[in-house]
Amino acid sequence: CRKIDAAIYVVSRCFEGVFMELFWGNTDHAGAHSLGWTEEKPLTPCTNAKQDEKPACFLYAHLGYLRTHSHNFTGALNLCTKNNLNQSDTWFCLKGVGITMMKHFTSHRLEQAESLVIQLGSEEKRAYYEGVIGYARLSNVSEKELLSFCGLLKHDGDICRSVIKNVPR
Predict the structure, then answer these.
(1) Strand spans (E) along 13-127
(2) Which of 15-24, 87-96, 117-126, 128-137 has the lowest mean pLDDT?
(3) Number of helices (H) and strands (E), helices first, in the chain?
(4) pLDDT digits (tens, 9 = 90+) for 72-105
(5) Residue 44 near residue 38 (C-beta atoms within 8 A)
(6) Rounded CA gap, 88 and 15, in Å?
(7) What is the DSSP code (8-state) at residue 156?
(8) 112 neighbors 132 (Cβ within 8 angstroms)
């Protein structure tokens, strides 16, 4: 990725592909364990990553957990919030869980995703909803549908609407 002669966002997309493959893809060619990932310490590749790789790594880190703990979204959230990560690493990790929640609910029944984050603080919820909203937009969910989704939330509607308003499409 570092050898790509392109803008930094292109390089960061390359890092995303690398970590997506590590945490979710077929690692038979290298073996996930040879890349520093283990069930016992699933965040090791991210904590050991170089600074410019960390956002991409933490964005996908929860997928390694979900690979071995199918549908345990509470556990994935705990991975992000209970491992003494710095604020930026926690933010990218929670954003990644939000992306996965959008994919899991396929833009339907998203209001059920709110119950998962009820224990989180408002900044942590914001990161999570940035993932949900960002992936929804990538999936061509309309702004009208997103605002409707925010209206279904019992506790997090204001955070959700703030993300829609303040995070560019």
Answers:
(1) none
(2) 15-24
(3) 8, 0
(4) 889 999 999 999 999 999 999 999 999 888 876 6
(5) yes
(6) 17
(7) -
(8) no
